[in-house]
Amino acid sequence: MKRELGLLVVFDAVAQSGSVTAAARQLALSQPAVSHALNRLRDLTGDQLFARSGRGLVATARAHALMVPVRELLAEADRLLHAGPFDPARDVRRMRVAASEYAMLTIVPALLRETSRSAPHVMIEVQPVGPETLLHLERGIVDVSFWGTTLPKAQFQQMTLFRENFVGVARSRHPVFGQTSRRVSLRQYLAHPHAVVSLGDPGRNVIDEVLASKGHARRIAAATPSFMANLAALSGSDLIATVPSRLCRGPHMRGLATFALPMAVDAYDYCLIWHQRSTGDAALAWLRARIAALA
Q1: Where are the domains of the chain?
Q2: Which end of the chain has fewer CB atoms at under 10 Å, N or C?
């Protein structure tokens, strides 16, 4: 049984990376050892499992069918093996965090600095938040995720990290600002083109919903998937951006100025979420506590 579990670890690494070389590097094994393990798995399953395609490997239908149960089995084994006290100064662990661009700019850098000091043998693997994040939490592919919207499913736990609110941003000498005041009226706010963040959702965001409720709409001149791209575009243009306030810190704000929105937009809770089965995992409890302290 121990030998077969080791083969599944190799299978998972190859399935995730699509490469024997990358899997060997991740597992600190030689490439021949990984290849030998794959051959043993092929003998046991009676399937090729992976076929070469270009510079990488592609999974067969049989391998695809194995991926989720193997991942869940390894996640359960990991929880069993790490059920005792966690010593961040000594224990080896990989912790997988899903984070949006907002989290990667505001919280993740401090988390990486903190863990490099206090948990030198812990690897923090950051993955982008996306449509599959909740499924990845369910299946143990992700341990925790930052979350800024309503939590839809009961099997997840959440912890509020802070309240966040939106502010307007424009270049310092933008005509939206008056001669003697940084206060911006609704008329001024709507008179200029806007850059917005769009993550593929065709629906309006909360800013547009508030404006629509008052019978107004802003003119969207640019839509990108990145807050930072939008902020960078403000210099030298008459674009306006509306962003979470914690993004308005740091050298990227040179030449830019913030202003209070001319309409009431509710603040929102920014949270950390995880699947309920990992609540008792001592290592992940430590991770959640560190994130809460940093946030």
Answers
A1: 1-81, 88-161+267-295, 166-266
A2: N
